[in-house]
From TrEMBL:
Function noted in UniProt: Catalyzes the reversible transfer of the terminal phosphate group between ATP and AMP. Plays an important role in cellular energy homeostasis and in adenine nucleotide metabolism.
Pfam families: ADK, ADK_lid
Annotated Adenylate kinase active site lid domain residues: 127-162
Start and end residues of each stretch annotated as NMP: 30-59
One of the record's GO molecular function terms: AMP kinase activity
Keywords: ATP-binding, Cytoplasm, Kinase, Metal-binding, Nucleotide biosynthesis, Nucleotide-binding, Transferase, Zinc
Compartments it resides in: Cytoplasm
Residues that bind Zn(2+): 130, 133, 150, 153
EC class name: transferase
Record organism: Clostridium aromativorans
Binding site for ATP: 10-15, 127, 136-137, 199
Protein name listed in UniProt: Adenylate kinase
Gene of this entry: adk
Region of interest: LID: 126-163
């Protein structure tokens, strides 16, 4: 299955992607995670991307598309993939379509996790992540077993640098202007499915499975 996860920052894309990837045995590819890894390793891509992430702006299409073409060419994507945070502009969506059509493939479903804006700020400002393994938590809705420590590797969990209120505002603005048009784009291709993302984490995953069972036959 080739799945795209759409939704505003904080909608729960990363949280649900982990479950989907484990259940359907497809790699979870998050552009945000790839950029953050490059930033922590201080690669040239990371140095370039950092300026954009810190301000809540999109990394230019050229850089992002080229990075994703390399990632999608890796063997583990042959059986399908789950894209989290890509595409984020119509230009990126067209580049992805072209890339897939070269191998006779196409997207099976673009899953929109629908969450109203007033819930988003709480979700994002309460998020904590493990800098070592990338596991993600929420201080209230999904707390770790031991306060402040990652369940998986027991490191201290931290707040993402772009999870401040000011940067979240900029990210939401970018989403409205540059990413929301993708909803119409995938609707026109007849691959858009919208799931209610307001319930508890397990409930949202159930909503997603209900959609995917019709596609994964
Ligand atoms: P990215 O890392 O993709 O960030 P984002 O889209 O802003 O999304 P988030 O990761 O903030 O939210 P999420 O939907 O994954 O929510 P999560 O599951 O963590 O991108 C970061 C930056 O990288 C961008 O700003 C840009 O600069 C750059 N970038 C990335 N892709 C790019 C591209 N294609 N082109 C150009 N630039 C790009 O959940 C959030 C919190 O809520 C967590 O604490 C979680 O525990 C909690 N939660 C989740 N679900 C629920 C629930 N059902 N109930 C209660 N709490 C919940
Ligand atoms: Mg995420």
């Amino acid at each position: 299955m080739k799945i795209i996860l759409l939704g505003p920052p904080g909608a729960g894309k990363g949280t649900q992607a982990k479950f989907i990837s484990e259940r359907y045995f497809i790699p979870h590819i998050s552009t945000g995670d790839i950029f953050r890894k490059n930033i922590s390793e201080k690669t040239s891509l990371g140095v370039e991307a950092k300026k954009y992430l810190d301000e809540g702006k999109l990394v230019p299409d050229e850089i992002t598309i080229s990075m994703m073409k390399n990632r999608l060419a890796v063997d583990d994507c042959k059986k399908g993939f789950l894209l989290d945070g890509f595409p984020r502009t119509v230009t990126q969506a067209k580049a992805l379509d072209l890339f897939l059509s070269n191998t006779g493939g196409r997207i099976d479903v673009a899953l929109l996790i629908d969450v109203p804006k007033d819930l988003i700020l709480n979700r994002i400002t309460g998020r904590r992540v493990c800098p070592s393994c990338g596991a993600s938590y929420h201080i209230k809705f999904n707390p770790p077993k031991v306060e402040g420590k990652c369940d998986v590797c027991h490191n201290d969990i931290v707040q993402r640098k772009d999870d401040t209120e000011a940067t979240v505002k900029s990210r939401l603005d970018v989403y409205d202007k540059q990413t929301e048009p993708l909803i119409d784009y995938y609707e026109a291709q007849d691959v858009l499915s919208t799931v209610n993302g307001t319930g508890e984490i397990d409930q949202v995953f159930q909503n997603i499975k209900d959609v995917l069972k019709d596609i994964h036959k």
